[in-house]
Structures are given as C-alpha cells and as structure tokens.
Write a structure and sequence with these properties.
SH3 type barrels; 5-stranded antiparallel β-sheet; 6-stranded antiparallel β-sheet; 2 domains; mainly beta; single chain; 13 strands; elongated
Length: about 140
C-alpha cells in the first residue's frame, strides 16, 4: 500500500507544499497530519476547521506515485524524469488510464508504465514541468 499525498505550488509565495489535498472550490494542500482539527454540523451547514492549509495553483497539483527514483527521490505527477536505459530524452510523469506512467511529448507520444516491477529505480527526477518547462524540449 502506498502513501496517498499530493504537492502543489502555493498561490501566495510560489513555494511547493506537500500533504493532503482538499478542495473548497479551490485546491488546498494540508501540510500537517493533524490539519483537520474539528468540525461541527448544524441542520443547514457543516463547518470544519482546517489548519496548515495552503491554497495552491490548480495546474501544479500532482499526486505522489508511491515510487522513488534511483536517488530515493519521491516521484510525483508532473515530474520530469530521465532514464539511462532508453535514450537522452526527458519524460514527464502523468496519471492516465488508472496508472502512473511517463511520456515523451517531444517528437511524438511514447507511453511507458511505471511501477516497482518496471524500473522506477532506473529513473531520475531532474525537475518538473512547472518549474522547468524547457526540460521537455529535445536535447541537441
């Protein structure tokens, strides 16, 4: 069983935060394990107090794959990875068809599934598509 966690860039300062994803019309990342401190319900409304919640930029939200790269770095949806076994292309990690995979979006679509048995330990996280969009361009 893997950890279910997310990351996203904070709206207020652009820093990455990691934790649980909640949404109240806009996505928030709750960074503490005890972020949901209490809640109460009335006949017409439910109230929940959430501490350590940070509003994040929606397009930057990515889920943890549950896998680590060859350097023991957590691999998230939206990461850019490289793999020595294939070629010099960089791949972006995404969730599609009920599974995580990595895809070469430069010069065509190439989908490769990733899990513990198909070589996540051969991958290396070199950045992400939000901070480093140039990583997906072809190498010279």
């Amino acid at each position: 069983m893997r950890d279910i966690k997310f990351r996203g860039k904070r709206v207020d300062n652009g820093e990455w935060v990691y934790g649980s994803l909640v949404s109240f019309g806009k996505p928030y990342i709750v960074t503490s394990k005890h972020g949901f401190s209490h809640y109460r319900a009335t006949a017409s409304k439910t109230y929940m107090h959430i501490k350590d919640a940070h509003k994040v930029i929606p397009k930057t939200v990515g889920q943890f794959t549950g896998l680590l790269d060859k350097n023991s770095v957590e691999i998230y949806e939206g990461d850019v990875v490289t793999c020595e076994d294939f070629n010099t292309m960089n791949y972006s990690v995404l969730f599609q068809g009920g599974a995580f995979g990595y895809v070469n979006r430069y010069g065509g679509l190439e989908w490769l599934w990733i899990d513990d048995e198909t070589g996540a330990s051969d991958l290396e996280v070199i950045g992400n598509i939000h901070d480093n969009p140039d990583f997906l361009k072809g190498k010279e």
